[in-house]
Write a structure and sequence with these properties.
Blueprint lengths: L7 E6 L6 H10 L3 E5 L5 H18 L4 E5 L14 E4 L4 E5 L9 E3 L3 H6 L5 E4 L4 E8 L3 E8 L1 E4 L4 E2 L12 H13 L3 E4 L5 H11 L4 E6 L2 H5 L1 H7 L2 E5 H7 L5 H15 L3 E4 L14 H12 L4 E4 L1 H4 L4 H16 L2 H9 L8 H16 L3 E5 L4 H8 L6 E5 L2 H6 L6 E5 L6 H14 L8 E7 L8 E8 L8
Parallel strand pairs: 1-2, 1-16, 2-3, 3-12, 5-6, 12-13, 13-14, 14-15, 15-16, 17-18, 17-20, 18-19
Antiparallel strand pairs: 4-10, 5-9, 7-8, 7-11, 8-9, 20-21
Helix pairs in contact: 1-12, 5-7, 7-9, 10-12
Length: 477
């Protein structure tokens, strides 16, 4: 099965899409990666969902990636005596560590680490920023604040501190258990929430130890400040616009999205745009025009993948949401402006043999109008460098490792096939031709641009470029 687009689609699974039949329908509609959200659901459900995806993969013959999204620290208020209270702008309001239920004058905030990070002038956002407080006085166990934006406040609402770096790790005890469970399931990607500093990513990378790709979610202002260092350590990035739009003024999010995408592309690492992309399709069969434009913008920016969250996890139209996203991506990528933007944003190759070969492959494939660029890879690094070039032709990736094929399912322009490792040049060309025919990347007489590393099977040794003809006797396998 070949997708007629380069950008990928991630679908979050949940109550609306947990069954095997719906998962298959989402896959057929265009989902390339399935996200398991560890903020919700029981482990038995996650395990059953994982098994359903792997069975679908076996039957379809196409590698499918599974992304485990860790919850991260959740900072929340305690409860209120009447379940809620009303705050007026300008009034005084206290946050403290006592367990006594809150009222219109105070509320429990059971997080000592927050008080350790607060300073006079710090803003505290509650309920996704609907309530805004400014700290006037702070002690070890309480903070006096002024209400800047009031309204109804209620039990267990989330708390954000955009101006503070909290002295807590991105991994909670729950996350550690979930991470081990996800690794035991053999997921392909782990998304790390609440990243504040490069050390957060390094800690989790050490635990994962190469068993999955690590995707850092950029949702905190401090992560933006350390973006380059985080990119160096992580295997991929996610632009988590929901929390990012709470932690920062919403008008800054579009520019930051472009900056993050550009930085990830420069590093040759996949980048995902997430949150509220087709939000209205949670309840409606058609998206708004603004949402369609939002998806289109991410495609024009060259993002590797777009993610659907509630749209497919709990919405009334999960399959329709994936179908719509697939249609929008295909339409944008067929636009002349899209190709012009990809060429205008083309990045110079780094001074390595792999980048030199990948850049040459892109140019040769476009000059000769080849059917595809074919890369042989064990680790996936060759495929990532090829995708960094954003070539005009598809990238057919042949790898002996199923875990590599799965992990690359999130990468722009890549179509992965698990196959036996090649043994020599003749076998390399024959195998590439047969698979290109089978998967409709080329017809007899078309040319392929093939990259590989010699000696064959040597990780990271991309040093050969070969132009080959797809011969008529290359019968599809």
């Amino acid at each position: 099965m070949r997708r007629q687009r380069s950008s990928k689609i991630i679908a979050t699974l949940g109550p609306a899409s947990a069954g095997a039949e719906v998962i298959e329908a989402l896959f057929l509609a265009g989902a390339d990666v399935f996200r398991l959200n560890f903020s919700h659901g029981e482990r038995e459900t996650q395990q059953a969902t994982h098994a359903a995806i792997r069975e679908l993969e076996r039957r379809s013959g196409r590698p499918i990636a599974i992304l485990a999204d860790l919850q991260g620290p959740k900072l929340r208020l305690g409860s209120f005596a009447k379940g809620r209270a009303e705050l007026a702008p300008g009034q005084r309001f206290r946050l403290d560590l006592t367990q006594e239920p809150g009222n219109a004058k105070r509320a429990p905030l059971p997080h000592p680490e927050i008080f350790a990070a607060l300073e006079v002038g710090t803003e505290v956002l509650i309920d996704d920023g609907r309530i805004r407080l400014r700290v006037d006085k702070v002690e070890a166990d309480q903070a006096q604040t002024e209400v800047l934006a009031g309204g109804e406040i209620s039990d267990r609402k989330g708390v954000n501190l955009p101006g503070a770096v909290l002295p807590i790790t991105a991994l909670t005890d729950k996350d550690r258990g979930d991470l081990q469970f996800a690794l035991d399931l053999d997921v392909d990607w782990v998304a790390l929430s609440f990243v504040q500093r490069p050390e957060d990513v390094a800690e989790v990378r050490k635990i994962i130890a190469g068993r999955a790709g690590l995707m850092a979610k950029i949702e905190k202002p401090s992560a933006i400040e350390h973006l380059e260092d985080i990119i160096d350590i992580a295997d991929g990035l996610m632009v988590a616009r929901g929390d990012l739009g709470v932690e920062l003024p919403v008008e800054e999010v579009p520019g930051l999205q472009k900056r993050i995408i550009r930085a990830a592309r420069a590093a040759g690492k996949p980048v995902v745009v997430a949150t509220q992309m087709l939000e209205s399709m949670v309840h409606a069969a058609m998206p708004t025009r603004a949402e369609v434009s939002d998806v289109g913008t991410a495609v024009y920016d060259g993002a590797d993948a777009m993610m659907l969250s509630a749209e497919t996890a709990s919405g009334a139209y999960p399959v329709e949401a994936v179908t719509m996203m697939n249609r929008v991506i295909e339409q944008v990528e067929s636009d002349d402006l899209y190709r012009n933007l990809m060429d205008a944003e083309h990045l110079p190759p780094e001074a390595t043999a792999a980048d030199a070969i990948s850049a040459a492959a892109r140019q040769v494939a476009e000059t000769l109008r080849a059917g595809a660029i074919v890369t042989y890879t064990g680790t996936g690094s060759t495929a990532l460098r090829a995708a960094r070039e954003r070539p005009i032709v598809p990238i057919l990736v042949l790898t002996p490792k199923l875990d590599t094929a799965r992990r690359l399912a999130v990468v722009w322009g890549v179509h992965c096939v698990q196959t036996e490792d090649t043994t020599d040049f003749t076998d390399m060309v024959e195998r590439a031709g047969r698979i290109a025919l089978r998967d409709a990347f080329a017809a007899g007489g078309d040319r392929l641009v093939i990259t590989a590393g010699v000696p064959f099977g040597t990780p990271g040794a991309t040093n050969v470029l070969r132009i080959a003809w797809v011969e008529e006797h290359h019968e599809p396998v």
